[in-house]
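Fold this sequence, please.
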Amino acid sequence: MTGYANAASEPGGGGSVTVEARSVNGRFLDLALRLPDELRGLEPALREQLTAACKRGKIELRVATSREAEGAVPLASEDQLERLARAQAAVRKWLPHSGPISVNEALHWCRGSGSSAALDAPALATASRCIQGLREARAREGARLAAMLRERLALLRDLARQAAPLVTTVVQRQQARFLERWDEALASAGGGQAEPGLRERAHERALAEAAAYAIRIDVAEELSRLTSHIEEIERLLAAGGELGKRLEFLIQELQREANTLGSKSAALELTALSVEMKVAIEQMREQVQNIE
């Protein structure tokens, strides 16, 4: 599911921290963390927070300190500069031809050697608030997806109700067609005059053929299973929780029943209903992959 959130800590002695999280759809959990060097040690804790909060989606978490956000020059303390000067003197004592340390190198070293402990706690607390905001945004997106799924389920239920009586109509139509063809065949062959009981036997044969045909195109079982899957999906949506994997399985079952209904279709009306079902199910399948 998609979502976005950000949070910032209050300015303190060690500076402030800004956390930004964004999420896009994905079938699996894919985490990408962008952290400043001084907070790199927090990566395991941040990953643990994200894993506990989200189960699916491609999630990017960016953390920035006030120093990075403002582009300010890192300040070096006297103690850092003194230790750096002693280190340079010791090196040049043994390597007299080595070049002096540049200002950029000195600032980079002082920045990397500085303690970031003062920012650790604010960074974790701010990240926690940001992740909570991301969860709320994803929950709102999930509610919209659930509403869309309920609309498609209502459409499928209506299509199933329309398909049920069509089977009986098709069977009756085919039965009348069998009887008509048998009568035409008997009339052209003159069988009704040659043998008095032939027409009755032909009529029974036509009814038997119509019954066999009705068995072949009977989709009552498919419609029953389709309705059962619809009810189960509605139950899961009402219960909430982690539904993505279970919904994917049920959507596959819906697709299978709709395909069987289409393959058994013996009338244009049933074929049209089957196509509409497949379209609705495909729309559901695309969205279910995004549900956690």
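The two ends are 7 Å apart (CA to CA). The chain has a mean pLDDT of 79.
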